[in-house]
Specification:
single chain; alpha/beta; Rossmann fold; 7-stranded mixed β-sheet; 7 strands; about 20% strand; globular
Length: about 150
């Protein structure tokens, strides 16, 4: 079960890596990058090309990051997400957010078996404060329906 404490712990990590940004700029990872940056997060981009994306240098893998990060937002399909959580573990990163669509039972199980905190089935933009105008109504509905993590 995903708890409010797990979400708060992840979001308290002010330095995050994002795996799943696109060179074309049309993926959720790009949207998350733009929005989290406006919220004051220090963000590192991970992309196999190591190219400049969204005006920022990306790195081919988590082990190539020039600085330590507190957590990883994973926004890739489930099969590559399995690899990402293993890379995170090897890099000593224990806070994982599997964005909706990235979760797989294997990745979740690996995190749980290795003492990593893993948030899944939730959109990070619904919880990163301040919540955007677009996400406020969704949060309100979830709250009314009792679907916000406690």
């Amino acid at each position: 079960m995903i708890t409010k404490a797990m979400i708060d712990d992840f979001l308290s990590q002010r330095s995050l890596a994002i795996v799943g940004v696109s060179r074309q700029g049309n993926k959720f990872g790009n949207s998350a990058f733009k929005e989290l940056r406006t919220k004051g997060y220090a963000l590192s981009l991970v992309h196999p090309s190591g190219e400049v994306i969204e005006g920022q240098q990306s790195y081919p893998s988590l082990k190539d990051l020039p600085q330590q990060v507190g957590g990883v937002l994973v926004s890739v399909p489930p099969a590559p997400a399995d690899k990402v959580v293993r890379e995170a573990h090897a890099a000593g990163i224990n806070q994982i957010w599997l964005q909706q669509g990235a979760e797989s039972q294997a990745a979740i199980q690996f995190c749980q078996e290795n003492g990593m905190s893993v948030v899944y089935g939730k959109c990070i933009l619904m919880f990163a404060q301040p919540v955007s105008f677009f996400h406020k109504p969704h949060r309100w509905v979830m709250q009314i329906l009792g679907q916000l993590p406690r």
